[in-house]
Specification:
five-stranded antiparallel beta sheet; 139 residues
C-alpha cells in the first residue's frame, strides 16, 4: 500500500469524524423550588418553579384542577402545567399512581429525558392541602 493512499484515507476519516453534528446537551436533574398546592371550595391550584441542571434554565408553572379536593383516581393526569417562560421542549405534569403522586418533567428531544419525583399521598392531608417539602430534586 502506498503512503499517499494511507494519508488520503486518514484525512478522509478525520474529516468525517470532525464534521459530525454536535450532540445536544441534556439536563441531568431538575431542581424544584418551591412546590405548592392551595385549594378553595371550587378549585385547587398547583404551582412550582423548576430549574434544569446543568443548563440552569427554568420557569414558573401552574395548573388548576376543578373541585375543592385533589384528584385521587389512579391514572388521572394533572396537567400539562402552563409555564412561563414557555419552552416547547419541556413538559410538566403529575400522574396519580398507587398511594402517591408522580411529578414528571420531560425534556423532549433526541433523546427525551424524563425526571421523576414521587410525592406520597400522606403529604396531602384531607385531600386539599400539601404539607411535604417545598423544594426537592427530580432525577
Amino acid at each position: 500500500m502506498q503512503l499517499s493512499t494511507i494519508v488520503a484515507g486518514a484525512a478522509a476519516l478525520f474529516s468525517a469524524t470532525t464534521s459530525a453534528s454536535p450532540v445536544e446537551a441534556r439536563a441531568t436533574s431538575v431542581n424544584i423550588n418551591p412546590f405548592a398546592l392551595s385549594c378553595t371550595a371550587t378549585q385547587c391550584t398547583w404551582t412550582l418553579n423548576y430549574t434544569l441542571i446543568p443548563e440552569n434554565t427554568g420557569a414558573a408553572c401552574s395548573f388548576v384542577t376543578s373541585g375543592g379536593t385533589i384528584p385521587t383516581t389512579i391514572g388521572t393526569a394533572i396537567g400539562p402545567f402552563a409555564c412561563s417562560p414557555s419552552d416547547p421542549n419541556v413538559r410538566v405534569r403529575i400522574q396519580v399512581v398507587s398511594g402517591q403522586y408522580r411529578l414528571l418533567i420531560s425534556q423532549v428531544g433526541s433523546p427525551t429525558s424524563n425526571f421523576d419525583y414521587f410525592l406520597p399521598s400522606s403529604d396531602f392531608p384531607g385531600g386539599n392541602s400539601y404539607t411535604g417539602p417545598s423544594s426537592f430534586v427530580a432525577l
